[in-house]
Design a protein that fits this description.
The complex is a heterodimer. Chain A is of the alpha/beta class. Chain A is built from eight helices and six strands. A six-stranded mixed β-sheet of chain A has the order 2-3-1-4-5-6, with helices on both faces. In chain A, β4, α2 and β5 form a beta-alpha-beta unit. Chain B folds into four domains: about 240 residues, Rossmann fold (3-Layer(aba) Sandwich), CATH 3.40.50.970; about 120 residues, Rossmann fold; about 180 residues, Rossmann fold, CATH 3.40.50; about 60 residues, Alpha-Beta Plaits, CATH 3.30.70. In chain B, the strands form seven sheets. Chain B has a six-stranded parallel β-sheet, sandwiched between helices. In chain B, α15 links the parallel β12 and β13. In chain B, α4 packs parallel to α5.
Chain lengths: ~210, ~650
């Protein structure tokens, strides 16, 4: 458990595409917060929305949390597995909040069919930073996951980055330990490496 | 983090764990000494049912079955409760419509062992066809409703519910919504009873009592007054229910009533607004509202707001009571809280701010205005059929075999997604099993029955091709098929048999033949169709698109009811199993020189693994998404797709 004062409420929104491991990431963060002694709420969507559609999950912890959903304008951090999914849910981020996003786009079928177009990272940045006053940090988390040994660890790269958020209430070591004991033994090495790569990437982006 | 199966069976009272609302209810069921559980899965209730299956596989003290539909499940669990055992059934809100006949007729008979009907509502319809409010049903049937405000309460309410049910020999509903069922929260585990700890399977005793269990009119006439008497006694009892209380400022002049999960939103809203001088009535039992507690709460208040999701169930009870007592203070509810879609903190904050004449802590409308810019450039990403989904191939074959003027009634399941472009092979979806009923009705309305002298044939015949999944076929497709065959419809029914109930999370069904207690008996859909007298029956593998197309063409030639079973295991399930076993699967790639950029694979087939590369003006396959069914290679007229070695590595 991390030292120091307990926070009243900390809000994380996780977005991406069904099948990318969003619920696993939310669950891991939920357990990390639970083991740190917090009240925890994790909001998920199951069923039809999970099938390769846009997905949002919420992780909230603190001494004073009740509902599972983060209201608009209240998320401290948005963690996105896909860039346009960060933009889709930007209204949840508070002014001055952080947006960590995997930078590799997955164009929806509608884009391939020519029924819609996919915005550039610059267009996204303009809205996320210009309109909402949040910091947009897009990086190739998938490449780092491959470097760590398995693309499936992209979610852990992103969690590693998340722990570097200024004022993040859980220590990186604590979160890393929860991941270590949670993943299958043969996947520990890749996940630990993925976590470290995420930490490193965030430190560089945040100039820590 | 331990496995859910371990956690829910942990004999560690006092341990603090993180559980999904639905898993917590399963834990509550065993803490409450459940003996029999029967359900048909339905989002958002399914994980409760699945956790019960995991428990039953590990602990032979609990009987659990995946029933074929909610009515059958209801009757299985109810009969156990008649026999003195504690029993539960579970369903999504619309499942109660299927079970409603038994529910409303048997309520007067009551129970011996505790009986809880878990119903999960889906406000905002995240995975449903309507947003009906189960509390209205409860009022209709005069059955009390327990509604949790947290995951902890979701667990604790089960044991209480069993006790309440036994005390009054009456049904109890445990109502959740999507947000409670699919919320993970911290839970403190309670004690496990000896029967569960010792894995003791309990058997009941049915005491014959025709006046109670045979609802001929002479007996049934005695039920109604008895039900009304019971519900008023229960209302009285609920004044002391541990899930109902008054909190906040005793001297406050304003009050807020918060039933179920709305309590969580109200707590957050009050903290966010920084409001302290209010009194709150937290209600774990939205029906019946305990009037004693209500009277105490209202004492000295000058105005009241009811923050309630969907229908004004609590509001109507409060207003009725206040009117009868001559209390004339403003009682707000649906004038400030929307009646449609789910409750959110934003809604609670906005309603409370308006009620108290305050500003909201953030300007939500300003956020909305800013968001308009994002909304303009964000491409839609609706859910889609998985890569390698056999349903895609079946729909594609149907489109090839039947004219575009054909009518395509469909049903409830993953394949409902066939409504979206590019497949667009779903013209109607109403309710479980509805595809066959609608197909038959359209056949009669547009063509006439084969038995009629005026029956149209040849050119004028309207082609009707219905699609229905295997689980839905067994659920409510069976009586509709019997009807269509008996009344001589002119339709093709394609049963998309992926050998599992996929949409709700891979539950077994009669076509799978597995049960939590060991092998069940497998029922083959083609055998059923033949036995019922279908005029044409064929079984095909949709991974062979041409063969599937040909079978549907043959079926279309037949005057009468044709049944084509398209059988191929659910790709999501199959790949999951392969991953677990460390197996590889083939993946496909585009041979650039052969791709002409015609986009048939994208604009007509639409596999999510195939995308358009705007630079090269060629189709590409995302190797991380491809699950290797090879449908693309069959669809491409230029032979531009080929399998590559490798596939996904073992995790």
């Amino acid at each position: 458990m991390s030292e120091g004062e307990m926070v009243r409420e900390y809000n994380i929104v996780i977005t991406g595409i069904g099948g990318q491991g969003i619920l696993t990431a939310a669950n891991l963060l939920g357990w990390a917060a639970l083991h740190a002694g917090y009240k925890v709420r994790v909001g998920e969507v199951h069923g039809m929305s999970q099938r390769f559609g846009s997905v949002i999950a919420y992780v909230r912890f603190g001494e004073d949390v009740y509902g599972a959903m983060v209201p608009e304008g209240k998320a401290d951090v948005l963690l996105s597995f896909e860039p346009v999914e960060a933009l889709r849910y930007v209204n949840y981020v508070k002014k001055g909040g952080l947006v960590f996003s995997n930078s590799r786009p997955v164009p929806p079928v509608q884009v391939s069919m020519g029924l819609a177009s996919y915005p550039s990272l610059d267009e996204m940045r303009e809205i996320i930073e210009g309109e909402f006053g949040a910091r947009f940090m897009a990086f190739d988390a998938e490449k780092l996951a491959v470097e760590a040994g398995n693309v499936i660890t992209t979610n852990v790269v992103l969690i590693g980055a998340l722990t570097q958020t200024p004022d993040f209430p859980l220590s990186a070591e604590h979160v890393k330990e929860v991941i270590r004991v949670s993943v299958p033994p043969k996947a520990v090495e890749a996940n630990m490496k993925a976590f470290d790569l995420g930490v490193k990437a965030a430190k560089e982006m945040l100039k820590l | 983090m331990a496995k859910v199966t371990d956690i829910v069976l942990w004999d560690k009272p006092g341990e603090r764990v993180l559980l999904l609302g639905n898993q917590a209810i399963a834990r509550g069921a065993i803490e409450g000494n459940i003996a029999v559980f029967a359900a048909y899965p339905g989002t958002p209730s399914s994980e409760f049912t699945d956790t019960m299956a995991l428990i039953a596989r590990k602990n032979p003290g609990v009987y659990m079955e995946y029933s074929t539909n909610e009515k059958v499940a209801f009757e299985a669990a109810l009969s156990a409760a008649w026999s003195g055992l504690r029993a539960m059934t579970a369903m999504k809100h619309v499942g109660l419509n299927v079970a409603a006949d038994t529910f409303l007729s048997a309520v007067g008979m009551g129970v011996e062992g505790g009986f809880i009907i878990m119903v999960a509502d889906d406000p905002s319809m995240w995975s449903s066809q309507n947003e009906q409010d189960t509390r209205v049903y409860a009022k209709f049937a005069n059955v009390p409703v327990l509604e949790p405000s947290s995951v902890q309460e979701a667990k604790d309410m089960v044991k209480y519910g069993f006790e309440l049910s036994e005390k009054f020999k009456h049904f109890v509903i445990l109502r959740t919504t999507t947000r409670t069922s699919h919320m993970r929260g911290d839970v403190v585990l309670g004690e496990l009873p000896d029967d569960i700890r010792n894995e003791r399977r309990r058997f009941g005793e049915f005491k014959k009592d025709p006046e109670r269990f045979v609802d001929i009119p002479a007996h049934a006439r005695k039920f109604h007054p008895k039900i009304l008497e019971k519900i008023e006694k229960i209302r009285e009892e609920l004044n002391n229910c541990p899930f109902n209380w008054i909190e906040g400022d005793e001297n406050a002049k304003v009050g807020i009533i918060a039933p179920g999960l709305a309590y969580a939103y109200v707590k957050e809203a009050l903290a966010w607004l920084g409001v302290k001088n209010v009194r709150v009535l937290k209600l774990g039992t939205p029906f019946p509202v305990p009037y004693g507690l209500l009277e105490k709460f209202l004492d000295g208040l000058e105005k009241v707001l009811i923050v309630e999701e969907l229908e004004p169930v609590v509001e109507e009870q409060v207003k009725t009571w206040a009117y009868d007592k001559g209390l004339r203070i403003p009682i707000h509810g649906k004038d400030l809280v929307p009646r449609v879609y789910e409750m959110t903190t934003r809604r609670a904050v906005t309603a409370i701010a308006k009620f108290l004449g305050l500003e909201t802590p953030v300007d939500f409308e300003e956020i909305d205005r800013k968001y308009e810019k994002a909304a303009k450039i964000v491409p839609p990403r609706p859910p889609s059929l998985c890569p390698a989904c056999p349903h895609r191939n079946t729909f594609y074959a149907i489109r090839r075999a039947a004219s575009l003027r054909a009518i395509f009634p469909s049903d409830i399941g993953c394949y409902t997604l066939g409504v979206l472009p590019p497949l667009k092979t779903v013209d109607t979806t109403v309710a479980m099993g509805g595809s066959i009923g609608v197909a038959h009705g359209l056949s009669i309305a547009l063509n006439g029955s084969v038995a009629e002298k005026e029956h149209k044939e040849g050119k004028d015949k309207k082609v009707i091709v219905a699609t229905i999944g295997d689980s839905t076929f067994f659920h409510t497709g069976l009586p509709a098929l019997a009807n269509a065959i008996y009344n001589r419809s002119n339709v093709v029914i394609v049963v998309m048999d992926n050998e599992i109930t996929a949409m709700t999370g891979d539950q077994p069904n009669p076509g799978t033949g597995e049960t939590p207690h060991g092998p069940g008996k497998r029922i083959l859909i083609e055998d059923v169709a033949r036995a019922m007298g279908a005029d044409y029956v064929a079984v095909v593998d949709p991974y062979d698109i041409k063969a599937t197309e040909n079978a549907i063409r043959e079926a279309l030639k037949v005057d009468g009811v044709s049944v084509v079973v398209a059988r191929q295991p659910c790709a999501l399930y199959r790949i999951g199993q392969m991953r677990r076993r460390g197996e590889k699967w083939p993946i496909y790639r585009v041979i650039e020189e052969k791709c002409t950029g015609c986009k048939i694979c994208i604009n007509a087939y639409g596999c999510p693994a195939i995308y358009w590369d705007a630079e090269s003006k060629k189709a590409k396959v995302d190797p991380l998404i491809c699950w290797g069914c090879g449908g693309c290679a069959q669809v491409c007229p230029f032979g531009a797709f080929e399998p590559v070695d490798g596939g996904e590595k073992d995790e």
